[in-house]
Amino acid sequence: MPTVPAAVRKFAHTIPHPIALIGCRASEMSFECCEYDLAVFAPASQHNRVIQVEGLAFELLHLALPARDHIVVLGGMKVLKDTNKFDLSSAAKGIAPEKYRKALFAAGKKSLISSLFSQQKMRQANHPTVAAMWLKLAAYNFIGGMLAISGCRPMPLHELEQVRQADARTMAEGVEVALECIGIERGTRPAISRSVKAIKELKSKDYDSDLFVSKVNHLLGRSMLADCYYYAGKVAAKNLAGRKELFYSRYSKLVKLALDLSSDMQLL
Description:
The chain has 13 helices and five strands. By secondary structure, it is α+β, with helices and mostly antiparallel strands.
């Protein structure tokens, strides 16, 4: 397992609450551009935020108690700071491998169900852009669900690589079809540039918009075009999934650019 940098531990001790390192930085799969996701257990609800300290990016993710409600998120966490009032270390030990596997499997089933709902919305859509959007959202949900069911927690920036590394025997053939729906073969720099510009507009009020851009730039700098295209689409899909129907029709051009739907609309 990766070693936690001293600067990360130092920063964690400035937070007056129990805190743990989670996400890709707590695993073996991370890039230089990846932030340090810190799960913070504060008594009162607070907003998530991204801050820069000593050249490192930290994303503070405030989670409500009890910890058992966040088994998938906290799986593999590294406790950085504990308190007497809340024994985070005990909570970490309580997430046994079998319990984590069952929680991950349940999360995977929810994603697959979401994929089915998205397909239903695609069939009911009256606008070709909206129909193509729901098809792509269904594909992303399906891939994330299959990864979770196979025992791998999906991580957006690394998800395409997780698919590549997954045991083919535990992944349905439908994953290949889902990847075709997403269209990663269209991951060219111009296409990614158009999508990112639109996604930046979608995320203009989000606290992590700069973090998104830095990750895209990192993948582009390494010429990981397919991964970058997949990641950008994943971020767009998550953002659009929570929008109202009126938004899709009013800003159909923005939706089309964000998810690179021009080719998809012709296939419906």
